[in-house]
Amino acid sequence: MVEGDMTVLRDRASMSTELDRIADLARGKKEVQFTSIAHLLTVGALERAWTSLRKDASAGVDGVTCEEYGAHLRENLQQLHDRVKSGQYRAQPLRRVYIPKEAGTRRPISIPALEDKIVQRAVLDLLNAIYEQDFLGCSYGFRPGRSAQQALDEIGRVICQRPMQYVLEADISAYFDTIVRSQLMEWIEKRVRDGSILRLIGKWINVGVLEDGRLLITQTGVGQGQVISPLLANIYLHYVLDEWFEDVVKPRLRGQAYEIRYADDCAPRRRGEGAVM
């Protein structure tokens, strides 16, 4: 094994230790705010992020493919790291595509440039270490080690093993496109106060979309299709829905109530007297 390979292995081991340390701190103190985590966005962290990306995914507006970027991977990641560290990193506009939905409609998907995917994935690893300690058990969508099948299994368990009186199914229309960004940033700042991380998130959610040669700038939303967007969406609903249901709704009910959420699809369930909400 060459020295370069040993360095990569040491970087990965060090990063895993740091993520574990962040998770332990977040788990132990729910009120703690993380003011200095951007220094963990090392070349090794970017390489770890690169490794986890799908290599057959569509290219962004720059047209750069994983094959092209990987041909000089270490050099490219070093240059990317230098730009992130110096503040010269700039997010590129998202490339808008549409995928078919039911009933003949289409879902807009926003594809980021490759380097934006890499940096977002590295930041995602940092934020997951924090927010996985905060998210409630009712949340199943876009979380490590959780799946849609597990959400369905929990729904089946509650329905079959608990006497149900009401079941409410809800789906937030165009959720990713309608998230209030200013409110989202306020929620994030409850835990993360590192200015460098906050600025990166601000760049990604405000970058704009390129569609048919036109740059479209919106005032709401987080751009469904970005690597970071599912986590941001979960953070928003954690505070707006999950904690509200747990801390405000349930104490006011005479019976028992359950919420099971997969991203923006949720199924609050109620047994005993009264309505769900």
Helix content: 40-55%
Terminal Cα span: 61 Å
Q: How are the strands ordered across the major sheet?
A: 2-1-5-6
Mean pLDDT: 90
Element-by-element helix/strand order = HHHHEEHHEEHHHEEHEEEE
- How many individual β-strands? 10
Task: Quickly give the structural class.
Answer: alpha+beta
Biggest sheet record: 4 strands, mixed
Helix count, DSSP H or I runs of 4 or more residues: 10
Please give the radius of gyration in angstroms: 20 Å
Low-confidence regions: 273-277
Rough outline? globular
Which features would summarize this protein structure in a list?
277 residues, 10 helices, 4-stranded mixed beta sheet, 3-stranded antiparallel beta sheet, alpha+beta, disordered C terminus, single chain
Describe the structure.
- Helix 1 (3-28) crosses helix 2.
- The protein has ten helices and ten strands.
- The strands form three sheets. It has a four-stranded mixed beta sheet with strand order 2-1-5-6, with no helix packed on it. A three-stranded antiparallel beta sheet has the order 3-10-7, with no helix packed on it.
- By secondary structure, the protein is α+β, with helices and mostly antiparallel strands.
Produce the secondary structure layout:
Layout: H1 3-28, H2 43-52, H3 66-70, H4 73-86, E1 94-100, E2 106-111, H5 114-131, H6 148-161, E3 166-167, E4 170-171, H7 175-178, H8 181-188, H9 195-205, E5 209-211, E6 214-216, H10 229-249, E7 256-258, E8 261-262, E9 265-266, E10 269-271
Helix pairs in contact: 1-2, 1-5, 2-5, 8-10
